[in-house]
Amino acid sequence: MPILGNILQIGELPHMTFLKMKEKYGDVFRLKLGIVPVVVVSGLETIKKVLLKQGEQFASRPNMYSFSLLADGKSMTFSEKYGETWKIHKKVMKNALRTLSKSEVNSLNYSCRLEEYVCAEASDLVNTMQQLSKDHGGFNPFPLITLTVANVVCALCFGKRYNHHDKEFLRIIEINNDVRKVSGAGLLADFIPLFKFFPSTGLNELKKFIRAFNDFIANAVQEHYGSHDENNIRDITDALIKLCNDRNKYDKNYKLSNEQIISTVNDIFGGGFDTISSALLWCMLYLLKYPEIQEKVQKEIDEIIGTSRSPRFDDRKDLHYTEAFINEVLRHSSFVPLTIPHCTIRDTNLNGYFIPKDTSVFINMYQVNHDQTVWRDADLFIPERFLDESGRVDKSLIEKVFIFGMGVRKCLGEDVARNEMFIFLTSILQHLKLEKEPEHHVDLTPVFGLTMKPKPYTLRTENRL
Q1: Over residues 57-80, mean pLDDT
Q2: At the N or C end, where does the chain have fewer CB atoms within 10 A?
């Protein structure tokens, strides 16, 4: 259609529309969203070409208006173009994550500071779930899970945890959720630039949310500048300030500004809990739908970990069925259905098609995770598919689960996310049995966004220990 292009055809679940279009048009097809030409890519082998073999050619980000608002346009994840500066920024983020997630702790009980933070929050989470069930019977786990996971990233970024009733903390969680909701649904201004000048409730809300989010981060960073001691690195923000002070070690030509370095906090904070909280909410929903699978996971926890100690990161290598369950949730729910849009940095070819420079590229991860040629009975939920004949996890299959991306733009926090998911899930199931409300039907239909959440649900718990 004139001006709108194919926007009206996309519907509420774009990844499903693209899945149907793939059946008709193949792995590579072009449509127009507003006035913006968009190439949609599906199929595991074709996607590998885009993200791995020809990764640099597709490694940039399109000029989306909503992306320019995030972190004042300095977001490494959303808005920064691919090039030397981006590569240095990526190295900075990797080092910042490694500083705290791998840093040693004084306690003999934990392998690193991240494990200490996660285990402390997991213990609080179990206690709160027990209390909520005791006081109310059934309860909505969404706010609790989001706050718990957010507290881990707060500890990593700012060296402190917040009380679950702290108004500032609750507001920032609400803001982040709203930003993800609006940016996930897409703004007309991204595809029809003229719309950024028109009054729009969605756009005004996004601007308001982002301003508040940026202010929250800026205030936390400013506090750190006042108390910074390079001989006592307390958290990621301290690590980034230190990088600013002696960045010539990493950035000899000073390509990165201090603002860009500090904006890394926005990326880590924003991405650090949305994916993990979504994954946990999906895990618990699948456990409610398949109580027999819940029993198998608990049996493995009882046999390998027992009841005398809490789960640790190192247990992941021994709990094969639990790992299989988590990966089947990631695959089956595919709650990150599309990668953040990519963009070509020069004219290129893909599967015989010419794709001009600066073309937006959408990659359908949902399609790969439900491809019948990759996964037998792809629409069924079968954790056992990830186990080999000896009952051990088949790592070659886990590598085909497409949720954290691949190649140069792959999510840097995958290891952190997988460790957190494992600790939270095993801690809950070690102590509690999860049950759905008798009158409730378990609905696996997602709510579309940058990360898809389940529809709101309630559960109740029964003590196991």
Answers
A1: 83
A2: C
